[in-house]
Fold this sequence. Notes:
Layout: H1 2-21, H2 25-49, H3 66-77, H4 90-126, E1 138-141, H5 147-156, E2 165-169, E3 181-185, H6 190-195, E4 203-206, H7 214-231, E5 236-241, H8 247-251, E6 256-259, H9 260-273, H10 277-285, E7 291-297, H11 307-318, E8 320-327, E9 333-335, E10 347-354, H12 356-359
Parallel strand pairs: 1-2, 1-4, 2-3, 4-5, 5-6
Antiparallel strand pairs: 7-10, 8-9, 8-10
Helix pairs in contact: 2-3, 2-4
Amino acid sequence: MMQILSKLERLRKKAWKFLEKKRLILPICIFIIIIIFLLVIPSAIYSLESVQSESNEVHDTTIKTFWDGVWWTITTITTVGYGDIYPKTAKGKIIAVGVMLSGTVALEFLRASIISFLVQKQIQEALGMRSYKDKDHIIICEYNHRLNQIVKELRKNDDTKQTPIVLIADIERNPINEDNFYFIKGVTTDKNLQKANLKQAKTVIILGDHELSPENRDYKAILACLNVRKINSEVYTIVEIADETHLETFKGIADEIIVSSKLSSLLISNAVINHNISEVIFDILTYEYGSQILKIPVPKREVGYPFIHVFTNMKQNYQKTIIAIQKGEKGEIVTNPQPDYRLTSDDYLIVIYTDKKSSK
């Protein structure tokens, strides 16, 4: 007998530990309370109130059906008390007293539990403690001062306006208060990338950690790229690096490499030679005002025609200026192609165009 009791106690402890780990204790308690107040009590009060007396005469009761019992239970525990339905038997009145005393406590427990759950969820999201489950999202690894501007520009574009963004960064809390922006606290490890659902992500952006030296910043970015490729070799990866000499290292593990220092230096030097050239570049790169840059497939009707012919048609008919051609989706980019270059079905056009909405 003692052995059986000991085994039952061990099973009880294991079950309780499992429920605690899976956070099922609260839902089970709420479920039990709902069952008691919407099934057990209505059944009991209906049974007591609808019984016949010894003389086979039905009591003059107002609780004539099970659903009357449900209605009475709900109005009693919510302290509404319409008075249209109420128990008349002694046993029914005893149950009524118990429902009155316990109903308020049960409702307060439910209310407090729901509020606690919602608040805890918000706190966990703000502190980066939750996982992301949806797909076709953008993952941004690391945090620096460019993050806000990147997100701002993505939200101006119709294609990425509603796209969920998941940030993985070792900072205290979510830096952007937005419905479609999620935060996972920590460095770019396999575990955190899996929490961000990398396998179903659309794009990964790896920013440089500006708290490190340029060399260490790039080494950290290399490790992040390798972790990304290990989990999802197909996801489009964009990485920001500090040192141009590391370009060759990244070419095999990243789809697009941006040398931040080089970009700024080239823009400054060009502004010295060609005044106000920076305004043209910013106008093209921003999605909110003026012209924008876009990559589109070659229209089927233009395949096989020389570049100059396609250039003229796109400008006259669509107000789009071709500045480059990409040979294949990830192939070589040819800037300012020769007039007689004939376009193929695999080519892409890099165009500058004016969005009518942004020009208003």
